[in-house]
Design goal:
Layout: E1 5-9, H1 12-29, E2 34-37, H2 44-55, E3 65-68, E4 70-72, H3 83-90, E5 102-103, H4 111-123, E6 129-132, E7 154-157, H5 160-166, E8 180-183, H6 186-190, E9 194-199, H7 205-212, E10 231-237
Parallel strand pairs: 1-10, 2-3, 2-6, 3-5, 6-9, 9-10
Antiparallel strand pairs: 4-8, 7-8
Helix pairs in contact: 1-2
This protein binds 2-phosphoglycolic acid.
């Protein structure tokens, strides 16, 4: 059994609201929080909730700094599927954040240098809440099955499974999906204060079951959350919880 705080919701909307409430609570207490953010379809509803709260003047991002998990390699920053574009379109351009306070790993250029630069940025701060999605194969960020838990920011080759999962964003053409990415390592993720993992849909059920079993398994990167010393919330809809 895992010590993770599990929250099962009726549906995607409720999952998004529950996660947003945890961000709201933090930002009311600590307006200059460091937020670790994620891309993918799962967090979009949560970002919509944060935008609503910001527009209603319930929360402000004026003094917030953000740090994203990952970025594709070799995709121009301005490409419509870069995570840089994703964050601007789905969150940053709708809220009162200072864009200079937003950080993503750099995907273009020398990955070794880019990884070191991002690691140096992370070394000097403490992330208050790190948001995570989960891959159907249990990956977090782009830490694919088999990744060591003790490495920091690094370049990864995406697995066939992840390339297939992400092809829907690239006209369903696996050849258009970048093959490499740069990601925070599991070590960086375990360094944060609080982790919130969100998941919905039946194709995440198996991965969620493995995480919640409490068993640490290198082939299920998200199982590393069971090693986290701070708080961990796993917020899932009924379908993602269907194998628990
Ligand atoms: P998704 O991706 O939210 O698009 O399902 C999650 C992930 O791969 O981390």
């Amino acid at each position: 059994m895992s010590k993770i705080n599990l929250i099962v919701t009726e549906n995607y909307e409720e999952m998004s609201k529950k996660a947003a409430a945890l961000f709201e609570e933090l930002l009311k207490k600590k307006p200059n929080a460091n937020l670790g953010l994620a891309t993918g379809s799962t967090p979009i509803g949560l970002y919509k909730e944060l935008i609503k709260l910001n527009k209603a003047n319930e929360i402000s991002f004026k003094d917030v700094k953000t740090y994203n998990l990952d970025e594709y390699c070799d995709l121009p920053k301005q490409h419509e599927q870069s995570y840089y574009t994703f964050m601007n379109e789905n969150l940053f351009k709708h809220i009162d954040i200072n864009i200079n306070n937003t950080h993503l790993p750099k995907g273009e250029g020398d990955s070794k240098i880019n990884a070191k630069n991002y690691e140096d940025i992370l070394k000097n701060i403490k992330i208050d809440i790190q948001l995570l999605g989960i891959g159907s194969n249990g990956h977090i960020g782009f830490n694919e099955p088999g990744t060591d838990f003790d490495i920091g920011v690094h370049e990864v080759q995406l697995t066939d499974n992840t390339i297939k999962d992400n092809a829907r964003f690239f006209e369903n053409d696996i050849n258009k999906v970048p093959k490499k990415a740069i990601t925070m390592g599991i070590k960086n993720i375990l360094d944060v204060e609080t982790i919130i993992l969100v998941a919905n849909g039946v194709n995440k059920a198996e991965a969620i079951k493995k995480v919640m079993s409490g068993k640490i398994d290198k082939n299920v990167p998200a199982s590393a959350l069971n090693l986290h010393k701070g708080k961990v919330y796993v917020i899932v809809d009924k379908e993602a919880a269907s194998k628990l």
